[in-house]
Specification:
Leucine Aminopeptidase, subunit E, domain 1, 2 domains, Aminopeptidase, single chain, 14 helices, eight-stranded mixed beta sheet
Length: about 475
Amino acid sequence: MVLDIFNAESSLEITSVSTVPAEAVRISLAGGEKSGMLQEKGDFQLNFGDKGKTVTFYLGEKISADTYRSIGGLIARWLRKTKLDAAHLDIPEGLNELEVSQLFEGLLLGGFMFDKYKQKKSEHVTILTVNESFASALGRTKTVCGAVNMARDWAHEPASVINPESLSERAVQLAEKYGLICTVIDDVALREMGAGAIVAVGQGSKTPSKMIILEYPGDGSENPVVLVGKAITFDSGGYSIKPSDSMVGMKYDKCGAMAVLGTLRAAAELKLATPLVGVICAAENMLSKNSYRPDDILISLSGKSIEVVSTDAEGRLVLADGLTYAQKEYKPRAIVDLATLTGGCVVAYGHVRAGVLSNHDDLFNALYQSGEKTWERVWRLPHDDDYAKLLKGKDGDIKNSGGRHASPVTGGMFLKEFVSDDVPWAHIDIAGVADLEDGTDISIPGATGFGIRLLLDWLQRKN
């Protein structure tokens, strides 16, 4: 059994110590007014003094909810570039536990690398030490960031490595390692149970659809929260084929599911009280003589018929059956789904916020608050009944696309058709934030792992 798939590559290893290693370069932080070389956040200057060599990084004049996380990422980037063997971070007095954790997050997320397929690898790792009084905060943050970096690592893998079959194998290994229960439903069983939507999406691929279920029992005191993730391991668009340049990056169309897997892993390690179920809807949307077509009418697990307008609106099809399965099998007290669902969400919110469509005000408000705290920010989409009219089918109950107008809303409204009104539910469209071409202070270009820190904060506050 291969276990190294759970440990993403990093340029940084952080450990707590009682004394500063003699060979370590000290790193300090400074805020307040601009001075000398410290003009913009991330600027740094080198000093020599009684404590030896010290590098001071500037926090900027104003401290936001993301300042310490951002500066941690910039320090990690600097350490990767300079290739120091040893460094020690002097954490300023007065920082509260949240700010310290944010600083560690930035360092651990900023140290992530993905160069396993490069002939020339960046194998140097800096050992960064902090005072042992921060060991508890460091340990928890390592757990969270380990899950995020695993999700990033798996998201970066191409479709030649991760497809529905190999993803299910990884999920089984994940369950074995972290004490979860894993069930894999193949396309034959899915077809027999009536899940015609997810089966149709994958029937053009040599690796048919899978529904992967991971269960974390928590304290067992109540019905679970169910997280549903879209795992389109590659999206060609099917017969509604994408332009060739739009297919580049479609390995990231599985990022919703990666967030669910990462959250389940971290929940098990953190021993959260809340019972959780992860439903991974996995398919590869490919072109072949077996592919589903525009004008096909699919019968979903709910019994509703779906008229196919576009085979490139496939994510909502696999999620429809996943949402139905979650309600039938688990009677959840809440459902949250995550998906790179619509390009329209990128147009609406850019690469700053995810869009959320929810049938429950309290659930959305709680997710919003966690987003502001973790800087995985969200904004609410409307869900007026008027939008549902755009999805009314001609020959089937519902169409799988309402056209270009309000596409992130109609994408969410399609999913709403498969969720009972009395189940608190939120759909998070992460299309604009799941992967970034230029990266951020805490993320290299590519997958961000968006959603894991947001969900964990929300779940912990539910406890």
